[in-house]
Design brief:
This protein is mainly beta. It contains no helices and 29 strands. Strands 1, 2, 3, 4, 26, 27, 28 and 29 form an 8-stranded antiparallel beta sheet that branches. It is globular and about 60 Å long. The chain starts with a strand and ends with a strand.
């Protein structure tokens, strides 16, 4: 979910003298510092030990302005009006409750109600959030209210399912300006959670189907392009078993780009064309401000019985046509362009047991780095 926040700066000049001619050599006024957020993750190392508390952090101009404890994983987003950071709690007594940080007042609060355990909240336009409630209700809450309350936004009617298939496995995958990309499992007892069908729900509730994504484990990392015309996602695919009746152990993680106007999907693999002995991963997928698609991807050798051989080292890649190009050698988990020309960059930690978390840096336009936090799992923007 890509959102870029900025704090506005207004300068008013008042004078009684005659207007002066502006020098053509005057530089543009500096851009206001960008604001973004992050979530961290700390895994319990001891059996039966309560899960440690991580945090939701908010950063302005390279300085952390808020640290809110909780268990958030990769659940954060910014409301469409750009005024609030929201993250869903996972586990513990606050499971399902939303934590809201108000960028105008600097205050945070935990909402009194919880969303369902199977659901995740998304922006719903303006100051609202939305989530899916089984079997067919789209719920909303307005965070501008003093005491936000859940209410039904509308009932949705997706196309009929095949006999014997439950319609309970419906998920919101992405949102933009009130439009929702929804996925639904289309087979009874589907192995590994796939395949799924894709549906776009407009602001007035109209539903358009885009067919079945043939991945065998559902789709991940779905997001709208900056112009709203495409959706990128990755979907895990297991190759056929090597022996009849066997189980596939190595998977590939191709990226799909769906053209919302034509309905056509282009599918490519970041790692080229990995063979059945190579397992490819896409950890994070995001759009740059100019519309370039980025991915954090890694590949490892996959031995007998699915044993992973070697280090899973991620790197940043960019898509150029139907080809992916590697960007440098740093172990990038995420690299987000900010409105002030800086970047929020997460570099993979050196601990093989924690290859999905990293250290967050604020990198200015001239390359200066400031370390913000460790054990970061997601950049919220």
């Amino acid at each position: 979910m890509q959102r870029t926040l900025s704090v506005g700066l207004i300068v008013v000049l008042v004078g009684c003298s005659a207007p002066q001619q502006q020098s053509p050599h005057l530089s543009e006024p500096p851009r206001a510092p960008s604001v973004f957020a992050y979530t961290t993750y700390i895994a319990s190392r001891v059996k039966y030990e309560p899960e440690p508390i991580a945090e939701l952090g908010v950063v302005r101009g390279g300085m952390t302005i808020a640290q809110i404890p909780g268990r958030f994983l990769r659940s954060g987003f910014v409301t469409d009006d750009g005024e609030r950071v929201v993250a869903r709690q996972y586990g513990g007594p606050d499971d399902g409750h939303l934590v809201v940080y108000d960028l105008r007042t600097g205050r945070s609060r935990t909402l009194s109600f919880a969303i369902p355990v199977y659901s995740t909240a998304y922006p719903g336009g303006g100051s609202t959030v939305v989530w899916w409630d089984r079997p067919n209700r789209l719920m909303r809450a307005d965070l501008a209210d003093e005491e936000p309350k859940p209410e039904m936004l509308r009932e949705l009617s997706l196309p009929p399912l095949e006999p014997g298939v439950s319609d309970s496995d419906v998920y919101i995958a992405a949102e933009r300006d009130g439009q929702l990309l929804v996925t639904r499992h289309e087979r009874a007892h589907a192995p590994n959670g796939g395949p799924q069908s894709l549906y776009l729900i407009s602001r007035d509730g109209r539903v358009r189907g885009y067919g079945v994504e043939v991945g065998t484990a559902g789709i991940w990392n779905a997001s709208f392009s900056p112009d709203g015309k495409r959706i990128a996602y990755n979907g895990v695919r297991y190759p056929p078993p090597r022996e009849p009746g066997g189980v596939s152990s190595c998977f590939h993680d191709p990226v799909g780009v769906l053209d919302l106007e034509t309905g056509q999907t282009e599918t490519t693999d970041v790692q080229g064309h990995p063979d059945d002995d190579t397992e490819s991963y896409v950890r994070t997928l995001w759009w740059g401000l100019s519309g370039t698609l980025h991915a954090s991807s890694a590949a490892v050798h996959c031995g007998p019985g699915g044993q992973r051989i070697g280090e899973k080292r991620f790197a940043e890649w960019t898509k150029d046509g139907d080809i992916w190009d590697k960007v440098g050698e740093e172990p990038v988990l995420e690299s987000v362009e900010l409105a002030d020309g800086a970047k929020a960059v997460v570099l993979q930690s050196g601990d093989p047991a924690d290859d999905d978390v990293g250290t967050l840096y604020y990198v200015t336009a001239d390359g200066r780095r400031t370390q913000i936090a460790e054990r970061v799992v997601d950049v919220v923007r």
